[in-house]
Amino acid sequence: MASKIPSRSLLTFLKEARRAHLQFISSGSPSPIYVVGNPSVDLDSIISAIVYSYFAHNRAHITPIRPHVPLINLSNVAAGSELRRLRPEFVKALWLCTGKSESEKWEDTPESAGDMLREHIVTVQDFAKHLRERNIQEQSADAVMVDWNAMPVRDGQRGRGSLDGLSSVVFQVVGCIDHHVDEDFLPSAGSLPSGQPLVVKQSGSCTSLVVNTLRKKGIWHEGDKGDTGEAQVAQLALASILIDTANLTSKDKVTNHDTDAFAFLSLKIHNDTNTAHTVTTPYYEQIHETKQNSLDFLTVDEILVRDYKQWEEKSRGESVRLGFCSTVKSLPWIIRKASDSQRLLDSLRALCDKEELDIVVVMTAFTSPARDNQFCRELLVYAAEGDKKNEVVKEALNSFVSTANSQLGLADWFPLEDGVSDALSQDIKSTLNQDESWRRVWVQTNLSMSRKQVAPLLREAVATQ
What we know:
GO cellular component, one term: cytoplasm
Protein name: DHHA2 domain-containing protein
Helix content: 40-55%
Domain DHHA2: 284-462
Pfam family, one: DHHA2
Strand content: 15-25%
Cofactor: Mn(2+)
Number of domains: 2
CATH topology of the largest domain: inorganic pyrophosphatase (n-terminal core)
Low-confidence stretches: none
Order of helices and strands: HEHEHHHEHEEEEEHHHHHEEHHEEHEHEH
Mean pLDDT: 92
Largest sheet: 8 strands, mixed
């Protein structure tokens, strides 16, 4: 069993990791291992990367010993105040874990948080900028994937690919921890370096799998409350687990992986599992409220790509590109922000043009005070207009509806919250339901079906045409 980790604050580690990245760029030293989450860059993805990196960084359990650098998968955002604006729930969680330390104190404000993020975080845009500054045209690096298992750009070999916004870097995947459907991209377990994980299994939060994998490998030791750094990382890990499982109350999401990780982390923070929920609920509520309010400061175009993923499938020899937008606000809320349904369609068209999409899906998931804070889902599917593959796309979408209608519990759309006028309701129904250009809007009554389940259904419908 590996020896217990020495005391090291979370911010100290993040600064060390960023320094290792800059040294790799500037001196041509051996590549660190970049730990990179998925392109939606949600809280689970970011925190999974940071937690795994913290324990794997220069640790003897992985041979050879190498630095591990969490790489935030944002291709158009640098670390700084803009990162805080776009991902305030991450910054809130990080501040609650580290910001009150006397020696490393910082404030959750644009100025203070912006400075802290620039000194401690590396995004994909930062990586690309650092390469341009050094006039580096091509680079190779190793990566551990967390919260996803297939890179968008593949070079023909299993486990080798590039990230959007960083096409000049070819990554060799040397490990993976994920809770999504296996995309048949990863290398075999036998080809991985000693000590690196290959874990793809169902859980409410990927962070839970990260925590339990570290425990199983003897890297994160069982026991009572940890030192400052360990407690900080444990508290950060709890943030994404609680958010992804609705404070461990979502029966459709919570698994044994999540409850086991929660119990372990609670001991590391409070040294007492009996009072853990009493202590963690206010923590969860602060982060949840920040996430719920995060869209107030974004444009409609930014809302659509804030939690976004895309895939490409072959249908009758044609490549069909699918984009999925997930948001924590209702369609009426988004449409009011846009001004009307037609403006939302304009934003969807612009997204299709920019990403060369044939189909875009908007999934909303929110709680409705009008329904006793009941969790609700809506689904909007839109086919790009004027697409040469229009008939293939329409047939695929008709097949999707036929197959998925009962599984998703699709119902004709109706307002799920108060304050939606009859005029707005009619505008949504008439504008977002069109046979000729194929767009549909529904209330999704099967609340257990998130993007992790809906995306494979649509992808299969496209691929089997």
